[in-house]
Amino acid sequence: MQIDKLRGEQLDQLFEAILSLETKDECYRFFDDLATMNEIHSLTQRFQVAKMLSEGQTYQAIEDQTKASTATISRVRRCLNYGSGGYEMTLERMEK
After folding, report:
1. Which of 54, 62, 70, 88 has the smallest count of CB within 10 Å of its CB?
2. How many other C-beta atoms can be found within 10 angstroms of the C-beta atom of residue 49?
3. For 7-95, which CATH superfamily applies?
4. Percent of the chain beyond pLDDT 70?
């Protein structure tokens, strides 16, 4: 599985830090310190693209709404089709 190549002590520590966050405000504070606005925007954009693709939206509609490039949209689609299932898992949980 692809996620095996990501595993490591430092990434584990980052994930533990993220899992320790309890509120949206804590998330805002942590990510404001952790990442640049461009990095946060890129992550947000990819998640929105995944959401829209899972809803059956067209590339054009996604590009218009998110301003994502077709390369980004294609990359997210590959992750949805052949990735580790992370997008699907979180999107399903958010629907509940």
Report:
1. 70
2. 27
3. TrpR-like (1.10.1270.10)
4. 97
Q: Work out the number of other CB atoms within 10 angstroms of the CB of residue 73.
A: 23
Name the phi and psi angles at 51, rounded to 5. Answer: -60, -45
Neighbouring C-beta atoms of residue 1, cutoff 10 Å: 8
> Are the C-beta atoms of residues 52 and 61 closer than 8 Å to each other?
yes
pLDDT digits (tens, 9 = 90+) for 38-67: 999 999 999 999 999 999 999 999 999 999
What tokens were used for 56? 């059956």
Report how far apart the first and last C-alpha atoms of the chain are (Å, whole number): 27
Please answer whether residues 49 and 80 qualify as being in contact, where contact means their C-beta atoms are separated by less than 8 angstroms.
no
Helix (H, G, I), strand (E, B) or coil at 83: coil
**Residue found under tokens 């509940």:** 96
For 19, the token pair is 């899992």
Query: Model-level pTM?
Result: 0.88
